[in-house]
TrEMBL record:
SUPFAM superfamilies: Winged helix' DNA-binding domain. Signal peptide: none annotated. InterPro entries: Tscrpt_reg_PadR_N, WH-like_DNA-bd_sf, WH_DNA-bd_sf. Residues 24-92 form the Transcription regulator PadR N-terminal domain. This is PadR family transcriptional regulator. It comes from Stenotrophomonas terrae. Gene3D superfamilies: Winged helix-like DNA-binding domain superfamily/Winged helix DNA-binding domain. Pfam families: PadR (PF03551).
Length: 165
């Protein structure tokens, strides 16, 4: 990269190797779910910026069934997956890995969401965060109230725009 060449932002992969597997099993461990629900849950984790494909989810669910980590019951023409005692044991054995995968997903979802913002908004957010950090806790009550009101006003504007679109 030359000094005049702009710095390229690199967006992380949404999930690390094996993370989807761990996240799916942990979601089933929380409550029985259909495959489509699992896809939507993962998508929600990523504020719909990333959605796993059925081609990556359903083979994992089939593998879970073959490993006897989950059982599936027919529910209106679809399968609802339930965790088994073997699946619970697997989750317990891999609890640290599951938590790491969840933390990585939370972090990457924020990075991906931020990177998908228009550059002027991303830059303004960066400048705002930097300005807050420079204050180093030196806040007066009137400043706090005024800045909080401005943030609330900006939030309401974004929400209003989202509802109109």
């Amino acid at each position: 990269m030359t000094p005049t060449e702009p710095r390229r932002r690199t967006t992380p992969r949404p999930l690390g190797r094996g993370d989807l597997r761990l996240l799916l099993l942990s979601l089933i461990g929380e409550q029985p779910r259909h495959g489509y629900e699992l896809i939507q849950q993962i998508s929600e984790m990523f504020v719909r910026v990333y959605t796993p494909s059925p081609g990556s989810v359903y083979p994992l669910l089939a593998d879970f069934e073959s490993q006897r980590w989950v059982s599936a019951e027919e529910d209106g023409g679809r399968k609802r997956y339930h965790i088994t005692s073997l699946g619970q044991a697997q989750l317990k054995l891999r609890a640290e890995d599951v938590e790491t995968a969840r933390m990585r997903a939370r972090h990457n979802s924020r990075v991906i969401a931020r990177e998908s913002l228009p550059a002027p908004l991303r830059d303004a957010m960066h400048q705002f965060t930097h300005a807050l950090m420079l204050r180093k806790g030196e806040w007066q009550a009137p400043d706090v109230a005024r800045i909080a009101a401005l943030i609330a006003e900006a939030t309401a504007l974004v929400q209003q725009q989202s509802q109109e679109n």
